[in-house]
């Protein structure tokens, strides 16, 4: 068996291809990857799966705020290198870690059904039963996200915000074992996947805090040329999540936002209409632009059978989701970004970037 793939022969001489899945080594990443492996195993019982854990730059640099490192692919680069070298066949990511432009030769072959995309407040045990609103003046809230800090500073001016880094386990430890923080803000989806829902003191609704592009969704990154793997993982696509995330990613790409600027979204699909709320903020939240637009993502039943010819939209290949609906979602994201840019979003983001670099 030539070629870059790995095969094994069982006792009966049957040859099986081994699909190697790359993942970060953190507990959350492993839980997410195991859940994807389980779904694939259920769909393809004959395929052998092997999980390969790796440490990424983002996992190593723990003393610097993410937005200061200025690298968009902090948590993905090493995994993509392994994909490029044929050391793994697919990689499981949190979609929000994936830049809107992937390196050439890669594509997102599946966007799985989104969990709760909102942010959650995890309180220090002494503050149990409180909310951000009822915490005492000058309480310190831990978050490493400029997006969260910008929105919450404006909404809760009596609170103070400080960076907190590390994986979920590390952050919870820092919260519980020291008295530095009154509460920390984390993605609800991660807490739920870890089985830590009981720690959620409050879920932040869109009025308090819009979420990050792609938050709550898992993505499977593959080599675009591996048609069989693209095909294999594509059954895991959740059509509604695909459309929402294409719109969100198109919005972010057009704004040229990354980790180092506060950009936030909210999307929903209701009765074949896709709604996108997009926003940009200054670092302290005092200056912001926010708007909502909608588009129809209804697909006529005639078109259902057509194979989508345009392979990628903002890095996503979803041939089993009607092309016109994907185009509409992408256009919605672009239109939303252009609307905010016409109102001065560029200036807000440029200042935010400069201030952040100077911090």
Keywords, please?
single chain, 359 residues, alpha/beta, six-stranded mixed beta sheet, 33% helix, cytoplasm
**Intertermini distance:** 55 Å
- Globally, the shape reads globular
Order of helices and strands: EEHEHHHEEEEHEHEHEEHHEEEHH
Mean residue pLDDT:
89
Question: Taking Cα atoms only, what radius of gyration do you get, to the nearest Å?
Answer: 21 Å
Helix content: 25-40%
Q: Give the biggest beta sheet.
A: 6 strands, mixed
Q: Which structural class is indicated by helix and strand composition?
A: alpha/beta
> How many H/I helical runs?
11
> Spans with pLDDT under 50 lasting ≥5 residues?
none
Assess the beta-strand content as a share of residues: 15-25%
* Count of β-strands: 14
């Amino acid at each position: 068996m030539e070629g870059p793939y790995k095969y094994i022969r069982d006792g009966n001489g049957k040859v099986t291809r081994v699909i190697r899945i790359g993942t970060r080594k953190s507990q959350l990443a492993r839980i997410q990857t195991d859940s994807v492996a389980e779904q694939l195993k259920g769909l393809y019982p004959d395929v052998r799966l092997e999980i390969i854990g790796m440490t990424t730059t983002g996992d190593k640099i723990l003393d610097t705020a993410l937005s200061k490192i200025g690298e968009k692919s902090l948590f993905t680069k090493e995994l993509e290198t392994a994909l490029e070298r044929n050391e793994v066949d697919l990689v499981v990511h949190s979609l929000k870690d994936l830049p809107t432009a992937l390196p050439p030769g890669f594509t997102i072959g599946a966007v799985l059904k989104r969990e709760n995309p909102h942010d959650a407040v995890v309180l220090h045990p002494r503050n149990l039963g409180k909310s951000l609103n009822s915490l005492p003046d000058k309480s310190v809230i831990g978050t490493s996200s400029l997006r969260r800090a910008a929105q919450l500073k404006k909404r809760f001016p009596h609170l103070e915000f400080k960076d907190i880094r590390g994986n979920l386990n590390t952050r919870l430890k820092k919260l519980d074992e020291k008295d530095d923080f009154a509460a920390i803000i984390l993605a609800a989806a991660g807490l739920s996947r870890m089985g830590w829902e009981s720690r959620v003191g409050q879920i932040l609704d869109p009025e308090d805090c819009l979420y990050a592009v792609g938050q709550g969704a898992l993505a499977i990154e593959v080599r675009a040329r591996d048609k069989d793997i693209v095909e294999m993982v594509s059954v895991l696509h959740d059509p509604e999540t695909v459309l929402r995330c294409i719109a969100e990613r198109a919005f972010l790409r057009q704004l040229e936002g990354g980790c180092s600027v506060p950009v936030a979204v909210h999307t929903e699909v209701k009765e074949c209409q896709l709604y996108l709320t997009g926003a940009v903020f200054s670092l302290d939240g005092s200056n912001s632009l926010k708007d909502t637009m909608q588009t129809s993502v209804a697909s006529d039943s005639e078109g259902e059978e057509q194979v989508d010819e345009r392979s990628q939209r903002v890095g996503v290949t979803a041939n089993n989701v009607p092309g016109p609906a994907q185009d509409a979602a992408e256009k919605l994201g672009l239109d939303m970004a252009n609307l905010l840019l016409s109102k001065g979003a560029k200036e807000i983001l440029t200042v935010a970037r400069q201030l952040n670099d100077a911090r």
